[in-house]
Amino acid sequence: MLKPVGGVAPTAAGDNVAALHDVDFAIDGKPIFRGLDIAIRRGAVTAIMGPSGTGKTTLLRLITGQLMADRGLVEVEGRDVATMTRPEIYRMRRRMGMLFQNGALLTDLDVFENVAFPLREHARLPERILRNIVLAKLQAVGLRGAARLRPQQLSGGMARRVALARAIVMDPQLLLYDEPFAGLDPISMGVVLRLIKSLNDALGISSVVVTHDVREISQIADSSYILSDGRVVASGTPAELREHPSPVVHQFMDGLADGPVTFHYPAPDYRRQLLDRSGVS
Amino acid sequence: MRALLGDLASSLVVFLERLGAMTRFAGQVVAQLPAALLRPRLVVEQVYNTGALSLVIIMTCGLFVGMVLGLQGYELLQRFGSEESLGMGAALSLLKELGPVVTALLFAGRAGTALASELGLMRATDQLSAMEVMAVDPMRRVVVPRFLGGVIAMPLLTAVFIAVALYGVQLVGVQFLGVDQGQFWSQMRGAVEFEDVREGLVKGLTFGVACSLIAVFEGYNAQPTAEGVGRATTRTVVISAVVTLVLDYILTAIML
Description:
The complex is a heterodimer. By secondary structure, chain A is an alpha/beta fold. Chain A has one domain (13-275): Rossmann fold, CATH 3.40.50.300. Chain A has ten helices and ten strands. Chain A has a six-stranded mixed β-sheet with strand order 6-7-8-3-9-10. A four-stranded antiparallel β-sheet of chain A has the order 2-1-4-5, covered by helices on one side. The model of chain A is unreliable at 1-12 (pLDDT under 50). In chain B, helix 2 (40-50) crosses helix 6 and helix 3 runs antiparallel to helix 4. In chain B, 88% of the residues lie in helices and 0% in strands. Chain B has helices at residues 2-37, 40-50, 55-79, 86-124, 127-133, 138-176, 181-191, 194-220, 226-255. In chain B, 45% of the residues are buried. Chain B is mostly helical. The A-B interface holds A 64, 66, 90-91, 93-94, 96-98, 100-102, 104-107, 117-118, 121-122, 163, 166, 170, 176 and B 121-122, 125-127, 129-137, 141.
């Protein structure tokens, strides 16, 4: 079933691990979201897609409470993030994991200590148990043998996998992925793709994947949202989105240069600008 | 004229905004001090990074500052026939002024820039953001231990600088130029009071607080770009140098 433009899948509140209702958000007066509605279903892989600059990463920061909505409701586990105190937000984040686009590994720690970092900060575990947990997470991402390497010695794909091991080390209920495939070679991309799906299913967690790699995410996403111009323009399963009548969705899913989303940033007439000798304005 | 006044007014507003932001930041640092002190290992690591790793430059500069002071002091005192007062003059000038001030300037150039660029790069590469998402407060885990490390290291570096500089004075004055060794040390011991040592330590500690705070503030609030990190590093050195000299005047006026 196709969802109406800007609509949210009609699920009961308990089915959603997180949700945004009619959210407005602006940065320096520039509107990023206008009436955004999104529901993150429990146990599912939810893809957030859209052209660059549509605020996909901002959406993740709203869910983690790093940014606060100007208007509307951001709910995590049924609680309004805006009404949480700082300690409550920190407690909420302990049940989340986030994979940053560049991995964001701590450069003064080796791979093992990077993965152990959240445990050392939040759990007072005997060293032997901590070591076993970290090794198990590194084994899950195939990098147990790289435990003593420094972040500077890792390839982009390896750094992303270490960051993934770190993101799951506290056994989170919600995993947020910010552009997990950006800049990866096809082999690393396939590995990360399978990891996202297998971790989601094996650990019984919920995943939100922000990406514009349509083909890859379509293989594993249970539901997808396409954002444009500050709101949801379409939502549904990848198969449903491919059949969506919206020209924006069609342009995005098929990677077309021409369509409602313009390739060129607004500019004066090209010919006149070339003939004009007054410089670039 | 109106444009000039407008520029001055907007510069003043920017300055006051920045001062307000730094005051608020200092309040956050102070609020996190007890929690940071509960993890002394992190602070000790930073004392090593800011203090021990600055030792070579501090000692080298201290030696040459002392040697120059020995030459200049000897040349000046010789005119009045009182070369034996070289030790006393050098000790007082090093303890009360040169030691804390030059150490602070070197500290800002070596440790301050390292702190600012490290924090700025952590901001630019999302490491601070990652900590926030992992429910780890970067102020408590990263900023405050670095601030404390600088505050502890600075008076120690000042003491090392003064000790090495006095050796430099002695090397030139006594070993090279022939000032009487007994007179050199005895006049120094006779003239230097505990208040002089305290003045140096108070200045060293105050400059340590100021330079460390400026470095962590600039680094933590750096724009997350290569240019932003570079600008934060430059600002750290410039502001630290100016603040050190202004504070030096104020402290001297108070303690005289």
